[in-house]
C-alpha cells in the first residue's frame, strides 16, 4: 500500500514538473471583453497577463494591454509606467491616459461603476500599463527576495518584460515604440531607454523600435527636485510672503536643504507649515485624507501577500469625500479587491491578497542618484523626448524641471510660446534641438494629464504624430 501511494505521489509530482513551465510561460495572457461595473462589452481591445522577468525568484509582472482604436498596425506602441515607486499601472489605465474612468457617485455598497474615457490615448496608440516593480498592483514574486529591488534592477526587469512581451506579440515589433509616465516613473524612463538603446546597439536582444519617451512632472533625484525649487515656486504663486522668502534667502544663503543655523531652520519651519496647508498634488485641490492604507508592514504585509481567499478587502476609514480627486482611488481600492474583478482580470489565485494602489514599506534601493545624465545621453543620441509639467504641481514644480532642461544648453528651435486647444491657451512650450520639447500644462498638477485630460490628449496626439504642440 505504501509503495503504491509513493508511486502515485511521484507520478503526480512528475506531472506538476511538466506543468510548471506552462505556469511560467511569458504568454500567460487573456483577452478581457467585459469588466465588472462597465455597461456592456468593452469598446476597445483589452488583454491582461503576466510575464516572468526573473526565474530565480519567480518574479512575474502583471500588465494591462489596450490596443489602438485607430490603426494598430501603424500606430505607436507605448509602455506607460506609474510613479511611487510601486504604484499600480492601473493608475495609468483609469486615471491618466487609459480608456476607463470611474463614475463619480457616493459609494453605496455596490460595485463602483466604470465608463469610457473619451480622451483615452488608445485612440492614437497601443498602450501597455505595467505593474512594476514587483509588489506593485498584481505583480508578485514567489521568493520574498524578489521584492528587494531598486532603480537599476527594476529597470532591467522592464526591458526583460518588453522583450518577452514582444516575442509573444511579434506583430508590434515594427511599430514605433515609446516610453511614457509621470512622477517617479520619470526617473526610471531615461534609464530604461538607455538599457534598450544599448541593447539594440550591442544586439543583446531583438531590436526594439525605440523612438523616444515622454515624461510628466518627472522626478530626477537631483538637486533640481529638492526644496529649493519648492520655495521658489511657493513664493511665486503667493503661498509664502516676500518677507519669509527674503528671510530664507538671507539666513539660508540659497541652501534650503541643510540648515546651518537656527534662524534658517526657523524660517524653513514656517514655510513648511504654510505649504502643508495645500494638497500635495495640486495647489488648487482640497486637502484630503489618504484614499487607502499604503504601507506594507506588520499586519498589512501579511494581508498583502496572503491568498485572497483569506482576505476581506479593507474599506479605509475615514475615506476621501467625493469632492476629492482621491475619491476615485478609494473607488479603485474597492473595485480591485472584489472577486468578480479579479476573475475578470484573470488574476492568479494565491499571489496577492489585498490590492493596494500604491505600496510602501517593501525594500527599494534608489541606486540612481540622478537621472539627468541618462536624459542627456539619450537625447544626444537623437531620440525624441517630451518633458511636460503641470503648472500647479507643488511636489516637482515646473521651475525645477525647466532648470535641468535648460542646463543642457541646447539651442532653441522654437522659442517659448503658448500652445492651444479649442482656441485657448493650454500651456506654454519651447522646442530645442536634438528633438527635445518642454511644455507646461495649464491647470495641471503633479499628474498633469489626470487633471487636464483633454489638453493632455491633444498634447500627446500632436507629439506622437510629430507635429508642433
UniProtKB/TrEMBL annotation:
GO terms for molecular function: acyltransferase activity, transferring groups other than amino-acyl groups; serine-type carboxypeptidase activity. This is Serine carboxypeptidase-like 18. Residues 1-28 form the signal peptide. Keywords: Glycoprotein, Signal. Transmembrane segments: none annotated. Belongs to the peptidase S10 family. The lineage of its organism: Eukaryota, Viridiplantae, Streptophyta, Embryophyta, Tracheophyta. It comes from the Eukaryota.
Amino acid at each position: 500500500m505504501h509503495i503504491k501511494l509513493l508511486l502515485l505521489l511521484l507520478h503526480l509530482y512528475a506531472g506538476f514538473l511538466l506543468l510548471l513551465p506552462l505556469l511560467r510561460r511569458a504568454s500567460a495572457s487573456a483577452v478581457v471583453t467585459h469588466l465588472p461595473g462597465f455597461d456592456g462589452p468593452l469598446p476597445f481591445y483589452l488583454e491582461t497577463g503576466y510575464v516572468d522577468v526573473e526565474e530565480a525568484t519567480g518574479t512575474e509582472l502583471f500588465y494591462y494591454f489596450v490596443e489602438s482604436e485607430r490603426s494598430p498596425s501603424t500606430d505607436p506602441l507605448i509602455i506607460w509606467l506609474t510613479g511611487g515607486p510601486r504604484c499600480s499601472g492601473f493608475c495609468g489605465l483609469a486615471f491618466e491616459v487609459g480608456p476607463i474612468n470611474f463614475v463619480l457617485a457616493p459609494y453605496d455598497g455596490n460595485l463602483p461603476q466604470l465608463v469610457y474615457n473619451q480622451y483615452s490615448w488608445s485612440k492614437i496608440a497601443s498602450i501597455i500599463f505595467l505593474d512594476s516593480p514587483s509588489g506593485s498592483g498584481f505583480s508578485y514574486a514567489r521568493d520574498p527576495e524578489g521584492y528587494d529591488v531598486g532603480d537599476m534592477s527594476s529597470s532591467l526587469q522592464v526591458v526583460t518584460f518588453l522583450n518577452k512581451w514582444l516575442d509573444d506579440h511579434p506583430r508590434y515589433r515594427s511599430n514605433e515604440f515609446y516610453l511614457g509616465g509621470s512622477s517617479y516613473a520619470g526617473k526610471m524612463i531615461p534609464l530604461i531607454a538607455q538599457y534598450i538603446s544599448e541593447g539594440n546597439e550591442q544586439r543583446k536582444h531583438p531590436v526594439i523600435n525605440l523612438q523616444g519617451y515622454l515624461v510628466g512632472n518627472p522626478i530626477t533625484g537631483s538637486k533640481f527636485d529638492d526644496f529649493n525649487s519648492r520655495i521658489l515656486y511657493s513664493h511665486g504663486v503667493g503661498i509664502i510672503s516676500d518677507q519669509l522668502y527674503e528671510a530664507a534667502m538671507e539666513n539660508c544663503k540659497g541652501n534650503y536643504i541643510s540648515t546651518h543655523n537656527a534662524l534658517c531652520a526657523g524660517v524653513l519651519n514656517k514655510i513648511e507649515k504654510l505649504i502643508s496647508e495645500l494638497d500635495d498634488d495640486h495647489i488648487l485641490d482640497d486637502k484630503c485624507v489618504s484614499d487607502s492604507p499604503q504601507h506594507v508592514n506588520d499586519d498589512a504585509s501579511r494581508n498583502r501577500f496572503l491568498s485572497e481567499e483569506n482576505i476581506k478587502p479593507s474599506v479605509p476609514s475615514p475615506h476621501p469625500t467625493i469632492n476629492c480627486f482621491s475619491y476615485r482611488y478609494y473607488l479603485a481600492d474597492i473595485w480591485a479587491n472584489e472577486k468578480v474583478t479579479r476573475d475578470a482580470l484573470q488574476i492568479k489565485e494565491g499571489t496577492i491578497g489585498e490590492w493596494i494602489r500604491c505600496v510602501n514599506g517593501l525594500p527599494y534601493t534608489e541606486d540612481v542618484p540622478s537621472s539627468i545624465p541618462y536624459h542627456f545621453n539619450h537625447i544626444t543620441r537623437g531620440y525624441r523626448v517630451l518633458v511636460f509639467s503641470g503648472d500647479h504641481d507643488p511636489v516637482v514644480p515646473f521651475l525645477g524641471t525647466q532648470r535641468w532642461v535648460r542646463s543642457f544648453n541646447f539651442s532653441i528651435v522654437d522659442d517659448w510660446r503658448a500652445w492651444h486647444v479649442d482656441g485657448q491657451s493650454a500651456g506654454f512650450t519651447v522646442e530645442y534641438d536634438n528633438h527635445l520639447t518642454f511644455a507646461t500644462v495649464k491647470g495641471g498638477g503633479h499628474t498633469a494629464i489626470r487633471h487636464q485630460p483633454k489638453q493632455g490628449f491633444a498634447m500627446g496626439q500632436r507629439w506622437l504624430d510629430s507635429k508642433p504642440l
